[in-house]
Fold this sequence. Notes:
The protein is α+β, with helices and mostly antiparallel strands.
Amino acid sequence: MAHGALCFLCPGLWISGEEIAAQMGVSRAAVWKQVRALRASGYRIESSPRRGYRLLEADRLDPERIRSGLQTKFLGRELHYFREVESTNDVSRSLAESCPDGTVVLAEVQTRGRGRLARSWASPPGGIWMSVVLKPALPLSRAYRANMAVSLAVAKALSRLYQLRAAIKWPNDILIGGRKISGILMEVRAELDRLDYVIAGVGLNVNIDPSRFPAEWNATSISDQLGHDVSRTELVQEILREIEEAYLKLGSEEIFEEWRSLSATTGRYVRISSLEGDFEGEAVSLGEDGSLCIKTENGLQRVLAGDCLHLRGREEA
Length: 317
């Protein structure tokens, strides 16, 4: 049994590897292998050559604990938890036609996570890899409001729980100190101008060492910022609470104003890649339709969708 060693680990108490091996009827090497598997699943286990092993804290996401502590009316009340999936957005899409509004899909690991423009998204143990199915009564032309609400919710959760000054990089990244900590992938299903559903995929680096990511990603994590791990269960609950609060205000100007106030992009020199081509300029304002207005050498240009790279002068930052 892959996690058999867990049965013999009590929080705060030391137990020798020899004793665990005897109780399980396996070798010391087999015990060590299982301890490594537990650590990869989110369990914090301290080891000592003389004293053995001690369970410090289980940072494994527990769907029952998440549900029992939710402060939401409907969001996350139907929650599907997986140890491993290819993509939580893919699972959500398979459920979206029949599941209730606010259904959540959560995984410890994604093997084929993706970001915008089908880019690969690393989803190792220790993060939050989650998708939310939303069914707002909005026309397709206003689906961007859901993106605003989810981006704002993640940023506010980081601020409320950890006093981290999160900013939103247009259109859907969350930055701490200019480094990426979270990305949001929105997928929409609609018929004509009627919005059937929105799937909001949230990827958040929580208890992860960002040095495991390529340097060009300029990534950070909550544990990297604070110097210690945090409870992912508590964070999931807070994000879902914030998403529901923002979701219930989708039609108000309050969401747009808060989203705009947290912008990390306005006032920056940027490079935009879009269907209309690539260009550079100063990001001067955000529109209520989610657009970004760029001041270029040829005048103002409004962008509704595209890839945005922050620049310092004309050099990448």
